Batch of 3 targets.
Target 1
Amino acid sequence: MIDMESRVMSSLRLVGAFVILVSLFQTGSAQASCSKIYSGQTFTECRPLNTFGATLAWTLHEVNHTIDFAFNEDAGSLAGWVGWGINPTGGLMPGTQALVAFWDANRTNVIVREYDLTVDVAYRPETPLFPANNLSVLYTDTRVEAAGTVVTILSTLHLTPNQSVTLNHVWNRGFRVVLATLSPGGHHLTSENRASRVKINMVTGGFTSVSDGERVKNAHGIINVISWGMLMPIGVMIARYLRPLPKADPLWFHLHRACQTSAYVLGVVGFGLGLKLQTYAPVLLYSKHRNIGVVIFVLATLQVLALVLRPHKDTKPWRRYWNIYHHTIGYTTILLIVINNITGIDILDPGKRFRIAYIAFVAFLVAVAAILEAISWRRWWIMRKKLKIEVPSSI
Ligand SMILES: *[C@@H]1O[C@H](CO)[C@@H](O)[C@H](O)[C@H]1NC(C)=O
Ligand SMILES: *[C@@H]1O[C@H](CO)[C@@H](O)[C@H](O)[C@H]1NC(C)=O
Ligand SMILES: *[C@@H]1O[C@H](CO)[C@@H](O)[C@H](O)[C@H]1NC(C)=O
Ligand SMILES: *[C@@H]1O[C@H](CO)[C@@H](O)[C@H](O)[C@H]1NC(C)=O
């Protein structure tokens, strides 16, 4: 029991370490400079934002509950667009009341319009985005300037009397606009595009550069790849290839059980974070990933229970049936885990090298398994031959 407890504790410490690692990684960036002067107007505050070299300058007027803003970002090309807005309903893109700027057909004048980024616009790329005139946020005196491909959107936001001064800012940039309908196209979905949001306390300037959702997402990814994706297959290999060795007899079992229970404990934390992630997305986008995850969780839980409920070695034929059951569920679970981890990495999109690294890890395990498999078969073959020779002689 103490053994189990200390194992749980060390698993939890491991989780803590990862969360810290992830947050260090997240807050280390964005120390670029920012300007407080735009278009001849001087602002009292400014912040470099965490993506695309964007910056935000502002002045809060407590007397009339207004905030003057200057948002600055490089569109990358004269055919693209730059957008920024306040989301009064949450930290993500859906619900953002946006100001989007782009060039006219002659690429000489920059235009800015208001847009309501609904759930449909956010999650159904085929939904066209048209200018809106009934935003839930009041912007006045909106104007735009450009120098090369760098755009500055200036505006005044009118806070409602009891609105919090901590505001969710969401911005992005895209690469095409349908000028006939003033309809900006979608943007890429790189991790930079998805990290383009920040919650800023407009009074103190304090900010959280990555939303809780993003932190949970990263922790979910890292923990699940390590627990389900790495520890569990290693635990399976320990059982399969150590067990036949006569000297490794109770050892393989203890290693297998230790590996699988700590992977399971850690994995349950990762699974819980995955469920928590659903509360950040208004539309469940990744239902397939979620469903496979639930199946894996159920199967793995059955495996842990099976460990407790296993019949004694000598109770034939039950032990044989139990073995077949335990192995079938085990291999199925591992297969599902590999599939779901790869789709999960694709969803998180932390960069190609992570996908390649995980696939390389799996390939390495498969190669090691193939070699060990060959060795085991050979040993089995030799044993059989020996037995065949020995059996008649013993009669
Ligand atoms: C709000 O008050 C400030 C400071 O008095 C002033 O400069 C600004 O023009 C006012 N804004 C609006 C929209 O009335
Ligand atoms: C683009 O330039 C042409 C010729 O200079 C002009 O006739 C046209 O009105 C301009 N279009 C816009 C949208 O400014
Ligand atoms: C603006 O009006 C459109 C059409 O009536 C509606 O679908 C949309 O929800 C409204 N947006 C806001 C922010 O009220
Ligand atoms: C103040 O906030 C409450 C909810 O917190 C909301 O129902 C109400 O409409 C707000 N009042 C104004 C004037 O915005």
Note: The mean pLDDT is 85.
Target 2
Amino acid sequence: MARGSVLVIAPHPDDETFGCGGTIATLAASGMDVYVELVVQHGINTGGPATAQVAANRGMEFALACGKLGVSDFHVMIEEGDHRDTLHTQAARMVESIEYGSPLSIDRVRPQLVLLPARGAFHQDHQVVHQAAFAACRHRGAGHHTPAVILGYQCPEDSWSSQIEQATATLDVTEHYGQKQAAVACYQHQTKPDPHLRSRTAIERADAVQGAAIGVPYAESFVTYRTDLRFIAEAAEARELVCENT
Ligand SMILES: [Zn+2]
């Protein structure tokens, strides 16, 4: 039986991996069900020329990466679209999908933890997704699920943001870092040569810096938006049950 669930909101294919792939792999390996809601699978090719094949490639890369990370299930909210218009004109629909409309909505998955793009993101479409997901995580009253912990992940380009936020929560992802590296390698169309921020080595260096802050090889850090401490009590209870059963 799964020990709770996690919902990751990714604006585009690759954000879940570049932003928090090590955390996804670590939590999935711990026995939690990790679900990824991909907002738009657009046809923009960051690493080369746009072609009709790009959207399909990005979808395939996303599915492969989720497999490497141990994701339980994923869902694409908007299959096709130009993200430069789509996300800004569909914010209300996005909120409803994350709340209850998607097969992986908050009400269906009932996650203890939601990982969303941090508010101070560089990309405007990440900012829009942050606002929608943050709104969907509010307490909506009886009959609706309220996630106990809300954390914002930061993507490579966020280091060039005029409103970058201080990361306040950290997870050692060293044990499962190989899975993140394998997932990053799935995104051939989205990575660039070193020393670009989206290069494999730049991503590893950034995770190594986060790791050094807590004395481990690799870590990922997050901005905290909600930490309901009953989450810790529930985890302790779950551990007690496991101990009693063994
Ligand atoms: Zn993105």
Note: Residues 5-245 form a domain with the Rossmann fold fold (CATH 3.40.50.10320).
Target 3
Amino acid sequence: MKLKRIGKIPSNEDLKKYLQQRSIPIKFCYPKEGGNKWHKLRSNNKYDLGARELTAFKGSLPDIKTVIGAQPVNLVHLGPGDGIEIPILFETFMLKGNAVYTGVDISEQMIYNTVRLNNSYFSDINQLWYIADIEAESNLELICKDVKKDGAGRNLILLTNQGVLLSNPQTLENLYDSMQDQDYLFITIEGDDKDKRGEICSTYDLPEVRSLISVGLQRAGYKPDKGRFRTIFNKEKSRVEVYFKPANEQEISCLTSYKPKEDDFIRLLKGSGFEIQFMRFYEKVHTFAVLCKKEKQDVQSKL
Ligand SMILES: C[S@@+](CC[C@H](N)C(=O)[O-])C[C@H]1O[C@@H](n2cnc3c(N)ncnc32)[C@H](O)[C@@H]1O
């Protein structure tokens, strides 16, 4: 298995800097034991958010395949987690010619779990694996270029079930910088539904979610049982926010996950330079599936 490390994985020193702003981004929770905690959460049938995302993922993949056409395309899968999407992905997309499957994750354990749990799918395909923080500038750009060196000449980037990554504006900037005109970006994300905000928030109160978030708190020296968690839906920012309040200290922000409304989401994507090629909102599970390209610039604005 070819595994490359790109850039720097945030350390405990970096965590201290975030803590000064009373924040512990969830990316500090995924490496090492966090990979197995994620697998436990993803295997729990009460993890409704994950089931909703898979409905949109599975439902829209055939259409995505039709839109992008039959020429070979590399799949650049951002944060595959434990690889639950892999069977659906490979049953729809056959890699053709020199096309490569590429898994990118901040956590080596996630990559290990993805391969171990989906061994039969990986036994005879071209594959590349990268350990990288895709929220940091230029890592993803390097990866997307590197994949094309030996792979096909175009990429389909998958950012699926990644509301947390999409709540960081840097993520869309990094994606834009990583894409060329022939590339596609596929997003699935749970959206807002004003009548279901209780249901949306309740996923974040599952014991398995708290256990995952606790990895970051413990790395920062906190005892998760010596404090209180609080989950809210921030209507202004269209996102779920999870906080931890340690005894005698100010609250710490532990997770933010973007839950867009359709108009705002379209505005965000267009404003970030993307052109929407396909969009469907799965109303029952209030989840979007979107396929984008980079917006075509006219010759004048390219000069
Ligand atoms: C919410 S899980 C989604 C996993 C998968 N798409 C699914 O639906 O099961 C997030 C995944 O993205 C990875 N991840 C989170 N932040 C990241 C970052 N900044 N850079 C790279 N990978 C990241 C995590 O390690 C994990 O595998």
Note: The mean pLDDT is 96.
